[in-house]
Fold:
Amino acid sequence: MDALPDHMRPERSFQGFILALQRFWAEQGCVILQPYDMEMGAGTFHPATTLRALGPKPWNAAYVQPSRRPKDGRYGENPNRLQHYYQYQVIMKPSPPNLQELYLKSLAAIGIDSSVHDIRFVEDDWESPTLGAWGLGWECWCDGMEVSQFTYFQQVAGVECAPVAGELTYGLERLAMYVQGVDRVYDLNFNGREGADKVTYGDVFLQAEQEYSRHNFEYADTDMLFEQFKMAEAACKKYLAAGWREGGNQKEHLMALPAYDQCIKASHAFNLLDARGVISVTERQSYILRVRELAKACGEAWVHTEAGRAI
Amino acid sequence: MPDLLLELFSEEIPARMQAKAADDLRRTVTDKLVAEGLVYEGAKAFATPRRLALTVHGIPARQPDLKEERRGPRVGGPEPAIQGFLKATGLSSISEAKIQNDKKGDFYIALIEKPGRPAIDVLADILPVIVRTFPWPKSMRWGARSAKSGSLSWVRPLHAITATFGPDTEEPDVVKFSIDGIEAGQTTYGHRFMAPSAISVRHFEDYEARLKAAKVVLDPQARKDIILADAKQLAFAQGYELVEDQVLLDEVAGLVEWPVVLMGSFDAEFLSIPGEVIRATIRNNQKCFVVSDPKTGKLANKFILTANIEATDGGKTIVAGNERVIRARLSDAKFFYETDLKTKLEDRLPKFEQIVFHEKLGTQAERIKRIERLAAEIAPLIGADVEKAKRAAHLAKADLLTEVVGEFPELQGLMGKYYAQAQREDASVAAASEEHYKPQGPADRVPTDPVSVAVALADKIDTLVGFWVIDEKPTGSKDPYALRRAALGVIRLLVENKIRLALSPIIHQAHERLHEAVHGRTTVFDSAPGGGLINPRDVPLDRSLTAALLAFFADRLKVQLRDQGARHDLVDAVFSLGGQDDLLMVVRRVEALGKFLDSDDGKNLLAGTKRASNILAIEEKTDKRTFDGAPDASLYKLDEEKALAKAIDQVKAEAGAAVAKEDFAAAMSAMAKLRPAVDAFFDKVKVNDDDPKVRENRLKLLNEIRAATRAVADFSKIQD
Structure:
C-alpha cells in the first residue's frame, strides 16, 4: 500500500477508493465481478447476490453495481441525492464468523481509522418486498453517518437461505465524500489529480443527473413502460416454463438466469412508472406483488440448476 | 452458597430489545431453577449492545432429595398390572414394595427415592434449553451451521458463552454445556475497539470489574446515569440546558458499551426552522440530544452526542463528522419546511381524493368533508364559532401531505398549526390543526378552545361511528384503530371542559352519513336470510348503533374512573336509567351518588332500597305478577306506612325538581329524607299482612321506594 501513488489513495480519489475496496475483498478470497449489464435499483438485484445467495454451495463475491433509483433524481441540485449512484456489494456464503471484523478492516483499508472514528452497528431489519427477501443486521454508522448496510440474509426470492449469506452494501459516493471531506457529491475528486488534470464526480455525472431527472419525472414514455412491464413479465414466465426438464431422478431448470433478467427489467420499468407518478397507491402494491411472484419463481428455478442445487 | 454467572456474548443486539431480553433471561433461568427445587437468594440481569449477563446468587449446591410413595395394584392383582408397576417405579421385584391396607383392601406401595442432583449438572441441562428457546421478538440463523435445520437461532450471531458456578470465595467451576458448537467457558471480550482481547472471568464481582477495566459498563442504568450527568454538565458549562428525553436516553444507552458524551454545534441559521423539527431531525435520525437557552427556553444551535469510544484525538473527528451529518439533515429539513410554506394548506386537499382512509370507509377527502359537517353541527352546541370550526376542520388534516410530516409523522398537527399561522389563519383555526388530535391518552392535555374541541369531537366521533358501521370494533387486546383512545378522548373533552352535549343526535347524524358512505357505494348484493338478494342500497340503518356506542362510552368511563380510584360501578347504576347520553351529566350524577353513598344516609337508604327490591322480587315470583301502580291511601293501617308514602311523594317531587335543575347534590339530599321513613317502615311494618289487599298495597309502596330512587340512579346496579 505504501507504494500507492498519491492520486490513487482512497482519500484522494473516487476511483482509488473503489480500487482499495476491490483489493481488500480480493484478499479475502472474493471473486471480483464487474457490474451487471442491466438497470437495477440496488446491488442486491445482481444475480451474483439474489440467485447465488440460494442453495448450499459456498460463494464469495464483490462488485460495484451502478444503482438506479429514478425517484431520487433531483436535477443535480441536491448535494447528496442521485438517481444513479454506485453501490459496493459483498456477499459471503456461508457468512464467515468474523464478518464484522472483516468489514471493519475494509473501512481501515479505505482510510477510516477506528481509533478516532465512532463506528456503530445500529439495528436495521432489511426487507425487499419486490425480491421476497428479508434479513437481519444493521446500518453501520461512522460518526453518526450511515455508511453501509450489513445483512444476514434469511430468505431470498421466497426461498429460505441455507446456509445464510452475509451481505455488505457500501454507499460509495457517501463514504468517499466523507473520506475526501467534501459536502457536495459533485465535488468529489474522481481521478485524484489536481489542477487541469482533475476530473470531478460532477464532470462525469452532473449532466446525466439533470437529463435523467427530466426523463424520469417528465418524459419517460409511460405507455411504453407499461407495455415493457407486461412484456418482461410475460417473457419471464415463458422462459421459466420452458426451462424445466426432467433430468435423471430430479427436476432441473435450464434457463433461470435469462428468466431472472426479465424480472430485473420488470422491476426497473415499475420504478420508472412510480417516479412518473402514474401508479396509484393501491396499484403500487399489486405491481410490487407481481415482481415478487417473478422473483420467487426465478428463485425456485435457480435451486434446480447446477449452481443452485445441492452438491 | 454458590453463585451462577452467565454471559451470552454476541454481535450487536438492537437497543430496543435489550431491557426486555435481560429481564427474560433472569425470569426464565430463575423460574427453571425454582422448578428444579433450587431456591435462590437473588438474581440480577444486565444488557449491553454485545452481551446479556445474569448473576444468580445463593443457589443451593444440590437439589433436595425427593421421596415419593406411589400406589400400585391390589395385592394378588393380575400379573401384567404388577409387571407394569415394577417397570414404572424401577423396583426389581414386588417384594421391594410395601403393602398398605385401606378400606378397599391391600395394595402395593412403592417408595421411590430420587436423590437430588448437583446444581451445576441441573444448570448444564437447563441453560442450553433456555438459550435455544429464548423469546427474542425476531431471531436469525448465521454461518455454516445454518445449512442444517435445527441450527441455533439468536438475535444476532452468538459468539461466546460464559457460565461459571461456585461460591465467591473459591475458584468457580465452568457449567459444562455446548450449543451449536459454542462451548460454555469463562472467556469473554472487552470493548470492540478499545479493549478487544479475551478476558478470563470467575464470578460476577470479578466479571463486572474486569469488564470495566476493558471499557465496558455492564449496567445499563449506570450507562444512563453517566450519559445524563455528563450531558447536563456539558450543556451547563456552556450556559445551556439539556432538553431531557427519557426514551432517547434509553436507546442511546443501548448503543454504547462505553459512553463518551460530546457536544457539537450547527449553523445558527437553522434556528429559523421550528424547534420541534430541529429536535425531531437530530433525535430520530442522529440519536442526539438538543439543548436550550435557559433564558429564552428556545433551542440553541448545539447538540449532544454519545460516542462509544474515547478517541485518540479527544473526539474532534467524531464531533466534526456528526456536525456534517446534522448539517446535511437540517438542510433537508429546512428545505422541506420552506417548500411546504410555498403551498397553501387548502391547495393540498384535492390530493386526499386519491388517498384511501380505510377500504370500506372511503377516501380521506370524504372523511374530511364529514368531519367539517359534523364540526359545524357541534360548534353551536358548545359555543364555538361555526365558520371557524368549519374552516379548522377543512384544514386540520392538510399537513399530512407536507414534506415535513412525511419525514416526521410524529409532527402531524403541529406542522399544520405552523403552516396555518404562516398563511395567517385565525389563531383558533391554526391551533385546531394541532389540538384536534388531542387528547391522545389519559395523560395528554385536553384542548379548551371551543373550535379545537368541536373539531376534536367531530374527528373522534366520525372515527368511532365509522368503525362501528363496518363492524371493526376493538376486541380483547386488539384495538388497531385506537378506538378506545378516541372514546376516552370524547369523554375527557366533554367532562374536563364541563361541556353539556347530548351525544345521541350527533352520533345519529354521523351514522346516517357513514351509512350512506359505506352502503350507498357498495355494489355487492348480499344474499338475504330467506333467500333472494338484498339490494345494498336498501341495507337498513342499524338502529341499535347509538345505544351500542353509548355503552362503549360507558365502558371507557368506567375504566377511566377505576384508574382514578373512583367507584366505577356507579356508572352502570346511572347508565341503566336509560336515555343517558350527556357524559358530563353522567359524571356529575356519579360523583353526587358516590358522595351520598359514603354518608350514613346513603348507605342505609341503599340497604333499605335493596331490601325492598329483594322482597318485591320474591313476592313477584310467588304471585307471578308485578306490583306497579299507585298504592291506595285508604288501605294504610299504620303510621309508618303513611309516613313513608308521604316521604316518597315529597322526595319524588324534590329530587325530581333538583334533577331537572341538574343539581344532583340537592337530589341526593332530598333522597336522604327518605331514609328514616324507610327504616321505620321496615322496623314496624310487616309487609306480608294476612289481608291480601293490605299486602298488595304494601308491596306497591315498596315498589314506590324503588321508583323514587330511580330519580337519581338504578340502586340495584350498585355493588355493596
In short: The domain at 6-216 of chain A is CATH 3.30.930.10 (BirA Bifunctional Protein; domain 2). The first helix of chain A runs from residue 14 to 27.
